[in-house]
């Protein structure tokens, strides 16, 4: 039996998955955050080791038995970080072929049997990555608002706070978002709400994006405008990567991953509509398995194993054997 390892290192949790060449799940493990930008490279090592040991414990699988391994690592964004990242991976003691990528790549491998196309992420923040059949890559920075990349939960909540403030200072119309945020924070007036946010007595939380979607569903004009804005921004990110890869006239898979697509379909129609204006032949797939499955497929490709034969089986096995609470990608929205 050939064993393959996938590890998805995120900003809030880390997953490890072991599977065989037939697509059967052998073990699943979880650990805390591993992004070196927040926990350092020692924290990255600890997260990978903890998740791997949990995944391997049931079958007593040793590192030397693994034939291929794939790693999607949050915080591994630039070539200058490759050596330190590989040093961290080496602590696991693997002797097999490996592939190490940014975690934004994994959704593409997990969602598309082709292993190429575009992955658009809308979770805590946003990201977009793509590659063509020859391995040429397209990407955005993944660094969020400071670089003009919007559409995730953080950005949606920030826009919602703007709308609430605009109501308070009489710059914009009334919005039900104000009442909802007062309920969340336990404040009794709009002035008290704004004071508590400015003074950081209450900290803005990306999970409030769920409330923005709910208020939009009630027809609130400000909330609806925010959701449309997020959709426009996300489709613009995907369209940028599509142009980088010259996919405008190509049939390709576009994977939609992240909890904003998983939890609420409100974004789906406007996002896909915007993308289709750039690439009419895009085929949309909503990711319904954890990205760590993409890391396993990445490990299989490192060992030159054809993924097609076990793609569907592994995805189906994951859905049956991993708790549904773990199926969502690594985001701050629960």
Features:
Nucleotidyltransferase, domain 5, 2 domains, five-stranded mixed β-sheet, globular, disordered C terminus
Task: Describe this structure as you would to a colleague.
This protein has 334 residues and is α/β, with parallel strands linked by helices. The chain has helices at 36-57, 82-90, 106-111, 153-168, 176-185, 190-198, 209-217, 221-245, 259-263, 268-278, 292-302, 311-321, and strands spanning 3-9, 14-20, 25-31, 66-73, 98-101, 117-122, 126-131, 137-139, 252-257, 282-286. The chain has a 5-stranded mixed sheet with strand order 3-2-1-4-5, sandwiched between helices. A 5-stranded mixed sheet has the order 8-7-6-9-10. It is globular.
Topology:
Elements: E1 3-9, E2 14-20, E3 25-31, H1 36-57, E4 66-73, H2 82-90, E5 98-101, H3 106-111, E6 117-122, E7 126-131, E8 137-139, H4 153-168, H5 176-185, H6 190-198, H7 209-217, H8 221-245, E9 252-257, H9 259-263, H10 268-278, E10 282-286, H11 292-302, H12 311-321
Parallel strand pairs: 1-4, 4-5, 6-9, 9-10
Antiparallel strand pairs: 1-2, 2-3, 6-7, 7-8
Low-confidence regions: 324-334
Task: Give the domain tally.
Answer: 2
Main sheet: strands, sense, barrel: 5 strands, mixed
Question: How far apart are the first and last residues' alpha carbons, in Å?
Answer: 37 Å
Q: How much of the residues is beta strand, in percent?
A: 15-25%
Query: In CATH's first tier, which class of the largest domain applies?
Result: Alpha Beta
Let me know the average pLDDT: 92
Order of strands in the sheet with the most strands? 3-2-1-4-5
Helix content: 40-55%
Number of strands: 10
Q: Which value, in Å, is the CA radius of gyration?
A: 21 Å
Shape: globular
CATH architecture designation of the largest domain: 2-Layer Sandwich
Kindly report the CATH topology of the largest domain: Nucleotidyltransferase, domain 5
Under CATH, the homologous superfamily of the largest domain reads: ATPase, nucleotide binding domain
Number of helices: 12
Q: N-to-C SSE series?
A: EEEHEHEHEEEHHHHHEHHEHH
**Classification by helices and strands:** alpha/beta
């Amino acid at each position: 039996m050939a064993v393959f390892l996938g590890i998805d290192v995120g900003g809030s949790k880390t997953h490890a998955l072991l599977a065989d060449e037939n697509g059967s799940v052998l073990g699943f493990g979880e650990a805390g955050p591993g992004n070196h930008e927040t926990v350092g490279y020692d924290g990255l090592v600890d997260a990978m080791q903890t998740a791997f040991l949990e995944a391997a414990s049931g079958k007593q699988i040793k590192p030397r038995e693994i034939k291929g391994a794939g790693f999607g690592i949050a915080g591994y964004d630039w070539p200058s970080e490759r050596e330190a990242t590989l040093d961290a991976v080496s602590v696991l003691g693997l002797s097999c072929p490996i592939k190490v990528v940014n975690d934004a790549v994994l959704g593409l491998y997990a969602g598309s049997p082709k292993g190429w196309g575009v992955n658009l992420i809308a979770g805590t923040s946003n990201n977009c990555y793509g590659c063509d059949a020859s391995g040429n890559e397209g990407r955005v920075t993944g660094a969020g608002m400071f670089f003009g990349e919007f559409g995730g939960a953080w950005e949606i909540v920030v826009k919602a706070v703007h709308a609430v403030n605009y109501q308070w200072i009489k710059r914009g119309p009334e919005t039900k978002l104000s009442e909802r945020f007062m309920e969340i924070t336990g404040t009794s007036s709009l002035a008290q709400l704004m004071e508590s946010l400015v003074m950081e007595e209450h900290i803005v939380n990306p999970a409030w994006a769920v409330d923005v979607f709910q208020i939009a569903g009630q027809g609130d004009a400000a909330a609806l405008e925010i959701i449309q804005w997020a959709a426009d921004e996300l489709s613009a990110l995907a369209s940028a990567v599509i142009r980088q890869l010259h996919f405008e006239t190509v049939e390709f898979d576009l994977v939609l991953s992240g909890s904003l697509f998983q939890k609420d379909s409100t974004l789906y129609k406007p996002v896909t509509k915007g993308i289709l204006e750039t690439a009419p032949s895009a085929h949309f797939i909503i990711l319904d398995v954890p990205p760590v499955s993409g890391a396993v497929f990445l490990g299989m490709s490192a060992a030159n194993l054809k993924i097609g034969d076990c793609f569907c089986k592994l995805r189906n096995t994951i859905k049956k054997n991993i708790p549904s609470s773990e199926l969502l990608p690594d985001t701050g929205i629960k």
